[in-house]
Amino acid sequence: MQQSVTDRLKRLIFDRLDFREPPNFTDATPLFNGGLGMDSFAAVELISLIEAEFGMQFDIADLSAENFRDVAALARVIERYPRPS
Amino acid sequence: MTRIVFASPAEPSGASWLINCFLELGVKVAHKPVADAAWRQSATPRDSIWQPDGHGRHRLHPRAAVLKKFLPALTRVDTFQFREDVEVEYVQDLPDSAPAADHVLCFVRDPRDSLYSAFRRMQPAMDYHRFLRFPDPDTLLDRPSQWQLWVERWQALPDAAWFTFEAYKQDANALLRRIVDRLEIASGDDAIARAVAGSTFDKARQAEAQYRPRGGDDTGLVNRSGRVGDWADHPEGRAGAVTIEAKAGAALRALGYACRTPADGGAEHDPGATLSELSAFAADIAEEDLRGTNLPNHRIHRLLENLQRVAQANGWESASRLEALRQRFVEGSAHHFAQMRELLMQQRQRS
Question: Domain B2-109+159-214, what fold?
Fold first, then answer.
């Protein structure tokens, strides 16, 4: 069965970026302050991982605090990009 | 297992040379400053810059790859077979109390050289005079006072072994021999000679040239051939030395460095003057100045947080302005993303 975009994102964050998954983590948990506590280093790394995982390149305009607020918001942005054939 | 704590101030003091020598000798080194930075938000243990490869060897964790800029052994060797009789933890912090270690090793450099070297490495958008007075984000002390505090706190520990950058420059082989003997790390002369040969300035420069950072904020030149007494050849270095001797003269003298300022000639440790300087700094500091320091966002955020606390406690008018300023350095803010967009744009243009 194909994994959802949110599941793939969580795999990147917890497995590849080495963040510890909080017990109450949801798709609406903030990625930065008050949530996972991501920093700029991790954010830049996450962008690279997403681009490799989903075969896309972010438009610079899409790199915003709103789009990177949480996993759900980030998944919505990724889903807008065409999938590589 | 012998545990060694190896401490040096944050300014360029030659510590990377010794760390590289340890790695060349097969000694595992836990690099706390890099681990703290890479895993700031994580519960991963701080020596996790090393990953076991499953066959008794260790490789550097990718998040600590920045160390390849400083340590040529990491470029030369992919996986390390570390000795099991000794382990080193490298720190730059002030000691909380007596560290749980069999030996404490402190490695220092004349601050008139090390602070001037830090200034040239960081390339801040400010002159050296202002750089020296810029407050430490944790203690809010100016740089010479912070250096003095660091020396005083580590000197307060009994039985710490002190070595200097100047001794390394004089005879690296002899110094490494003295250090391993003092720390009871059994090493033959050949091993010492190989470790020193693998840790030269040229080797460090080559490693740095090979290292290609992933992040766009990591492009500064770190390896410079440090010369003893270099500060005296530069007018700004000489002017800075007056400030350093005035504020950190006691620690300089305690370590045997010659000072031109008389022992009682400096305005050392005047809390009133420090507070008044801080108040002026808090009233004047602007976002552009802070960005010009080239400090990472989280360090500037920490500085503003501490400064704001002092401002509130002392009823300074700058408290609310500092809070507004601090918001500009919050990770994940709109402002932070604007900077990141800029950074990625530059990266894409370069590639």
Answer: Rossmann fold (3.40.50)
